Amino acid sequence: MPVAVPLSSYEHVPETKEALDWADLPTIDLSLNATEKGRAQLADTLIEALRTKGFFYVTNFGISQAEVDSQFAIGEQFYTLPLEEKLRYVPDLENGEYNGYRPAGRRVLSSGVQDKIEVYNIPKPEVPQSFPPLIEGHLPEIRAFQEKLHERVLHPLLTLLASALELPADTLTNLHQWDKRAEDHLRYMKYSRYDAAEYEKLEAGDGLYVTGHTDLGSLTLLFRQPVAGLQIRDHETGSWKWAKPLDASLTVNACDALSFLTGGYVRSTIHRVHVPPKDQRDVDRLGLLYFARPNQGVVLKTLDSPVLAREGFTANEFERAGKPAPTIDEFTVAKQAWQQSKSTVFRAKEGQEILSGFKGQYYD
Length: 364
Ligand SMILES: O=C(O)CCC(=O)C(=O)O
Ligand SMILES: [Fe+2]
Prior knowledge:
The protein is of the alpha+beta class. The chain has helices at 36-51, 65-78, 83-86, 133-137, 139-164, 171-174, 196-204, 256-261, 306-311, 317-320, 328-340, and strands at residues 27-29, 55-59, 100-102, 117-123, 185-191, 208-213, 219-223, 230-233, 240-242, 249-254, 271-274, 285-292, 353-355, 358-359. The protein has a single domain, classed as Sandwich (Jelly Rolls), CATH 2.60.120. Helices cover 29% and strands 18% of the residues.
């Protein structure tokens, strides 16, 4: 087994000084999870956040900044590997596989500019995967980090959500067990900078690196990202606001699978990535994310919850269309293939039906 290559410490870039229209997001402070009163309060805050803003911060989640920075350092180092080495780890993207490396330049952005987004996804240990020696050397640390995210962040949030839905506390955690095979993955993501002329072209179009979309799993956990770019569409007002980096926090959003499981009561949140403000255009944007998804084989049908029954959220898109609800695996492959297949035309795949009863959509 390769030994861990020592990494230089990771320096976060300075935040923007521009006065952007920041989203005002609620915070789930997990230190309150220690008492019954605190849990009741958090469950209320969480369901309100999921029903209105769609995004929220999580703080005091029991993972140190040093551990987080170490992951950013691994991600930064990964992207210094020669392209030919990274290309050895490209999965069958056209057919919906996504663990491993996705090179830049598969998508055409507005004004015909090619994307400069690279993605590297690391699945759970149960999923067979080969890694470059750099990653292999750090695998024990990466595994420990993934497991902590699962047990210390995902599970408390799912337990709070079960309580808000008046379901037995373990209803949702049972569908998301760490030691079961599933499509959860940790991601290092890099948006490389453009030159001034290309930024101008992008701005003459829609100014976006990533079009408005929803994520396909349960919850996405996004580590503090000092280079502004992420924008969130408010469920209530429809307006786009920037996500502000908040110290020692995660930014979390609900995704398609959780929306299906709750008959649309929890909405999958629409978000996009804008080109950064002018004072951050001379740096690359490095992201660290965890995409949580239900266990393999979980059928995406609406849960039987007293709250959902009372509020009238008893059928999701598939059920309302009289179609069989897919398993998370079927849904994942179909939506990933739709998202990832190479395109030469801007928004070539708009509105395609990706599974019977569900269309792939972009959002403005
Ligand atoms: O880079 C970001 O801030 C968000 C990325 C994103 O939305 C995604 O990869 O699904
Ligand atoms: Fe996303």
